[in-house]
Amino acid sequence: MMSMFPVPQVPPLESFTMKPIQLFDPASSTYTYVLFDQSSREAVIIDPVDEQIERDLATLREYGLKLVWTVETHVHADHITSAGRLAELAGARTAAPAGCGIGTAGVQLQNGDTLRFGDEVLKAYDTPGHTAGSMSYVWRDHVFTGDALLINGCGRTDFQSGSAEALYRSITQVLFALPDDTTVWPAHDYKGRHSSSIGREKASNARIAGKTEAEFVALMESLDLPRPRRMDEAVPANRSSGLQHDADAVLETRPQPPAGDKKGSYAGDVVPELAWRWLQSGEAVMVDVRTDAEREWVGFVPGALPVAWKQWPGMAMNPDFDEQLRAAAGDKKLVLLCRSGVRSVAAAQRATTLGLEAYNILEGFEGDPDADAHRGAKGGWRYRGMPWRQN
Ligand SMILES: [Fe+2]
Fold it and tell me: Averaged over 302-317, what is the pLDDT?
């Protein structure tokens, strides 16, 4: 017999599973979030922490996910991001708010920009105030607020170009404009709470609920907060996606003109880290100009296309080099890799005569030989910990 009463509306099963994976770093009380698309298993990670990279990689493996994006809510002052390393190790592309000055991020996000992962979309919203470049991200009925809106609190506004006025407007006009049942996932919580909702924060957030802008600004100015412990180390490191640099840090992030008498004969020299970033962001095509035998013996770079400069037997010139290189480049710039950075210069010079924009990757795959004629201990792709595989 048919029921006389309306059948209760049961939410689709999907809505129960469409939640972010929330991960916690106890040292900095930071929450990192992994979101993924159910069918393609493509994933995004928000605010990853360097010291938790093994946990995060294990999480990706456990759920069978392919990381396609790393995203920052802002330049953190209390921990270092693992975005750069995740890009190298998991093949993700890096994205960050354009206003944060994270020059190494492949995608510089503007207000309203979206990142796709499988059929899912993450949308960026400018929410300045904690820092001038801070953003929040909306996915379905979830918002990742970084340090703009915290549970029953908000981020500080007293350094990193913070502004209490800007934060007031970001929270009241951008975040509180989201539907009340939107789940709030903050970048930190120091009291063991996991999430909140826009409705709850609007009604009872101790810093901002019911306050005028002037009252909020006065409250923020009266806070006398200690300096974050890792600020001096974390802020500069996070501006380069957490990638560690040596004394040449400034040089590392941009191509250098060819050295000495090679000047002008090709586009320039790049360190392996920059070449890898260009490859990840799709800006450049990487071409490995070693012989087939060398690659097989020594190792491959994932994603690099093989176009030998010379071939065995006898290291004769590859007669099809020009044609193969043109096909590999398409309309992109080239970064060229060889064993130690000699053949790749010759190949880059040749590419330039073909009208291509070609860069040489310094040190090659194995670097120069040491005093015992062993390679791989003095620099090069593998030595610098860049991604590679044996076969
Ligand atoms: Fe922060």
Answer: 86
3-state secondary structure of 228: coil
**Nearest-angstrom CA–CA distance, 157 and 145:** 15
Looking at domain 13-238, does it have CATH number 3.30.1330.30?
no
How far is the centre of ligand 1, averaged over its atoms, from the C-alpha of 214 (Å)?
Answer: 23
- Could you read off the pLDDT of 225-271 as tens digits, one per residue? 877 777 777 787 787 777 654 333 334 567 777 776 655 689 988 98
Dist. CA 154 → ligand 1 center (Å): 10
The whole-angstrom separation of Cα 188 and Cα 145 is 10
State pTM to two decimals. Answer: 0.62
Show the tokens assigned to 180: 């009340």
Instruction: Give distance in angstroms: CA of 74 to centre of ligand 1.
Output: 7
What's the gap in Å between 232 CA and the centre of ligand 1?
Answer: 13
Report pLDDT for 249.
37
If residue 121 lies in a helix (H) or strand (E), which one and from where to where? strand 120-126
* CA–CA dist 278, 258 (Å, integer): 18
Fold of 249-361: Oxidized Rhodanese; domain 1 (3.40.250)
- pLDDT of 32 over the 70 cut: yes
Q: If pLDDT is split at 50, 70 and 90, which confidence band does 335 have?
A: very high
**H/E element holding 233?**
helix 231-238
Nearest Cα to Cα of residue 303 among 284, 318, 323: 284
Domain range summary for the chain, segments of one domain joined by +: 13-238, 249-361
157 C-alpha to ligand 1 centroid (Å): 9
Distance 169 CA to ligand 1 centre (A): 18
pLDDT tens, position by position, 130-146: 999 999 999 999 999 99
Count the neighbouring beta carbons within 10 Å of the beta carbon of residue 257.
11
The percentage of the chain sitting over the pLDDT mark of 70, rounded to a whole number, equals 89
**3-state SS class at 115:** strand
Distance CA 10, CA 8 (A): 6
